[in-house]
Amino acid sequence: MSCDFLERHFTAGDPPGAVEEHRASCPECAALSRDLVRLAAIESGLGRPDPAAALVARWRAIPGRTVDCDTASELAALAMEGPLPDRDRVRRQGHLDRCADCRETAAVLGTLGSLEAPIPTIRPGMPTRTAPVASLSTARAARARSASWSDPRLYAAAACLLAGFFALFANTLDFRTTTQALGRQARVHWAEASDRFQIWEEGASRTLVATRESLTGYTKAVGAIALSAAGRATEGLFRNEPKTEKGSKS
Amino acid sequence: MTEIDDHTLAAACRTGDDGAWGQLLDRYGRRVYGIAYHFTLRKEDAEELSQEIFLKVFENLHRYDGRYALGAWIVSLARNLCIDQYRRRKREKSFVHVTDDSVMPLLSATDDPAKNALQKERTKLLFEAIAELPEELSEILILRDLDGLAYEEIAAALELPDGTVKSRLFRARAETAKIIRRKTETRNRPGGWKPGVMAMAIAAVAS
Questions:
Q1: Which of B12, B69, B96, B109 has the greatest number of C-beta atoms within 10 Å?
Q2: Are the CB atoms for A102 and A69 separated by under 8 Å?
Q3: CATH no., domain B1-93
Q4: Distance CA B22, CA A176 (A)
Q5: Do A69 and B30 touch (CB under 8 A)?
Q6: Nearest C-alpha of chain B: how many angstroms from A160?
Q7: A3-19 pLDDT, tens digit each
Q8: Domain B96-207 has CATH 1.20.1640.10
Q9: What is the ipTM of this complex?
Q10: Which residues of chain A neighbour B22 with C-beta distances below 8 Å?
Q11: Given an 8 Å threshold on Cβ–Cβ distance, is B107 in contact with A76?
């Protein structure tokens, strides 16, 4: 039976026969037990006086005497670097005495220092002179160059990158808003252009009328016909007139 | 050829001096093979990786400026190749179940069969635990505790400050201990694997 098991029974207040046996063989636990019995007697007789100083000291020493498994692992890591300070060494040893798993862990970690270096074997193709190394290097570089563009993995990677880009930035770009804004801009530009052409057309019509009136004789007749035709051709080109049905035109 | 310093050796190799190249292989071949073996745990892979590393060394000799020891520089070149190989191996099932053949070249045989068996099981358990570490921890553990590189060499090879190397090494060792403990606890459950029992059984058969 270990000391920590005994401590649990002490606090339970009903030590079985095995505890008695351990107490007989362990002076530390025997002293602790005596203190506990004395404390129980004091408590029953005088209410709740302060516990004996020796008992307090022992209680306080219990966590310092040992560590848990995780701390033992960390102390094992520290121990690989160099000797532990006395306090840590004692705490670790206290834990190892009671924990078989941590003892085995320490033994496995200990194999790190005892492993042999593997004996190197020269590969049959391993060049030991510089010329074959150089030719091997050149051949490998040529192979890498020729293989790089024909490798389907390259295209797969590019496709993945592209897909990743759209997946990441789709929200940021907000295609719908962008398309709507572009459409609005295009409509504004078209309306402005239409107004400008309308102004130009009106100006041109006035010029045509003025020129036709200034012509005389045959020249006037020919010029008037040509100018009328030109006027008819350009009339209504940029004007937003409502469309009329073929049958309704009188 | 007489023993020459790293910088001169590298310069001689650059000019195509076969003697210098042979000396470089002699001087660093064992270390490079050891690193390659610890990262791959397979003889064939370690040989191939060693050749790759030396090819890379030859191709990059013109970049060696003598700022670090040649050994550290070679390890820094070897590192990426080793890590690539390590990742490839990690994807394979065999990685987490280390075989007897993988650890045999690392063991020193004794006359005691039980002791040999116990050492082999413990070494397998150790490498299985290392395999579960994150790469940035396992590489430092391998370089320091298995290949015996100095902190300065590891710092130069991995381009890390000395303090980072030390803290990562501590974390690597502590994590390895925790993984080993977890595995040991699992094996020590009723019906689980017990190295002591195994060793006793082997001793009984051997006797």
A1: B12
A2: yes
A3: 1.10.1740.10
A4: 67
A5: no
A6: 21
A7: 565 555 555 555 567 66
A8: no
A9: 0.81
A10: 128-129
A11: no
